[in-house]
Amino acid sequence: MSIASDHDVRLTHAISPMAASGQVHEMKTDNEMMTMRPVAGLPIPAGRRVELDEMGYHLMPVGLKRRLIVGERVPIELRFVDAKGAVQVVKIDAPVRELGAAKNHD
User: What is the pLDDT of residue 105?
Assistant: First the structure.
């Protein structure tokens, strides 16, 4: 997924009826070991595009209510917060893909 904004915001949540909760995660290499951890939010600088993918920042559904099927679309609410604390919700329908299948971002 590719995200852009015309003003500075922070992606703080990804909520879906398909999961108990959603987190923004970061995957990175520390001392030659891959680690993954939740982050409080992902900065989206004004005028810059931020890429989410399985090897960097990504959305992590927690407590899936059922197994997702490749090809189905999952409703997700992305919650963004700006410097003044204003919240903006963007609703998307994300396609379910096999891990490693999304080399070209939608």
Answer: 45
- 100 pLDDT more than 90: no
Query: What is the three-class DSSP state of 3?
Result: strand
Of 37, 62, 54, 38, the closest CA to residue 1 belongs to 54
Longest dimension (CA), the chain: 39
**Of 59, 62, 71, the residue nearest 14 (C-alpha):** 59
Q: Are the beta carbons of 106 and 1 closer than 8 angstroms? A: yes
Overall domain count for the chain: 1
Q: Which residue, 21, 49, 24, is CA-closest to 36? A: 24
- The H or E element that residue 17 is part of is none
The answer to whether residue 102 is domain-embedded is: no
Residue 5, amino acid = S
Residue that wins the pLDDT comparison between 32 and 75: 75
- For residues 31 and 52, give the distance between their C-alpha atoms in angstroms, rounded to a whole number: 23
Query: Which domain CATH number covers 72?
Result: 2.60.40.1890
